[in-house]
């Protein structure tokens, strides 16, 4: 690398834009990757916020319908009129499995034999399987958000290390130890760290927020499954 080129790289930028546009190729590549990461994380945050807001609204409708129902068959009729939701799918899975074990057992006034201990345990496993599927569906995309949150600072640090190395190479080539020869290269190098943190911090906040929302929905589904089995026991179907 010739001295004029190194001197051009060490010129003092007048703005952050100049610093980015005048950066080295590794710095620009790191920044482009971070921009892509930022776009991906924003899209995931928008999609998950929309999904959890819809689940919350459907959950409120489901709980209101369940509170108005007096018996299990009333709740089943009420749930059929509601939009599809994780809560409704867990409920229908339990109802369908019970109906397979005791055909006609949900008809009004029907006298059915209660479930055995083994059948009750299988029903619990069926409900847990449906809960796990709903949890996996709601968690889709959060892994990529965690990847963006954890990898972005490392990419920024990588760009900084490469930039600092180039700055020191420039000092070696020019033979100048003046701070004016070091500052532009170091400042350019630090832009990738700033960009990495700028991408990572919102992703970390969003990831933790959505995980807490996911745990809330998961706990509600587990609580509902226990209540479903409790309702069967209260109505003499266990």
From TrEMBL:
Keyword field contains Methyltransferase: no
Localization (cell): Cell membrane; Membrane
Mode of membrane association: Multi-pass membrane protein
Protein transport listed as a keyword: yes
Key words of the record: Cell membrane, Membrane, Protein transport, Transmembrane, Transmembrane helix, Transport
InterPro entries: ExbB/TolQ_transport, MotA_ExbB_proton_chnl
Transmembrane segments: 29-47, 144-169, 189-210
Residues of the MotA/TolQ/ExbB proton channel domain: 115-222
Family per record: Belongs to the exbB/tolQ family.
UniProt protein name: MotA/TolQ/ExbB proton channel family protein
Organism, as annotated: Gaopeijia maritima
């Amino acid at each position: 690398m010739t001295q004029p080129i190194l001197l051009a790289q060490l010129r003092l930028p007048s703005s952050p834009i100049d610093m980015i546009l005048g950066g080295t190729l590794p710095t620009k590549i790191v920044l482009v990757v971070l921009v892509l990461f930022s776009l991906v994380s924003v899209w995931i945050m928008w999609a998950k916020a929309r999904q959890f807001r819809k689940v919350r609204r459907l959950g409120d409708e489901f709980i209101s319908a369940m509170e108005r129902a007096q018996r299990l068959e009333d709740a089943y009729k009420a749930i059929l009129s509601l939009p599809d939701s994780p809560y409704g799918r867990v409920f229908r899975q339990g109802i369908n499995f019970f109906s397979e074990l005791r055909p006609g057992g949900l008809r009004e006034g029907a006298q059915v034999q209660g479930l055995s201990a083994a059948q009750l345990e299988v029903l619990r496993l069926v409900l847990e399987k449906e809960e796990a599927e709903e949890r996996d569906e709601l968690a889709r995309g959060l892994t990529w958000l965690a990847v963006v949150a954890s990898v972005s600072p490392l990419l920024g640090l990588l760009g900084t290390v490469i930039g600092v190395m180039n700055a020191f190479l420039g000092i070696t080539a020019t033979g100048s130890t003046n701070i004016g020869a070091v500052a532009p290269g170091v400042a350019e190098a630090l832009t990738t760290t700033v960009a990495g943190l700028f991408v990572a911090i919102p992703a970390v906040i969003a990831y933790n927020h959505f995980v807490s929302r996911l745990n809330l929905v998961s706990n509600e589904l587990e609580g509902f499954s226990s209540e479903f089995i409790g309702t069967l026991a209260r109505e003499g179907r266990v």
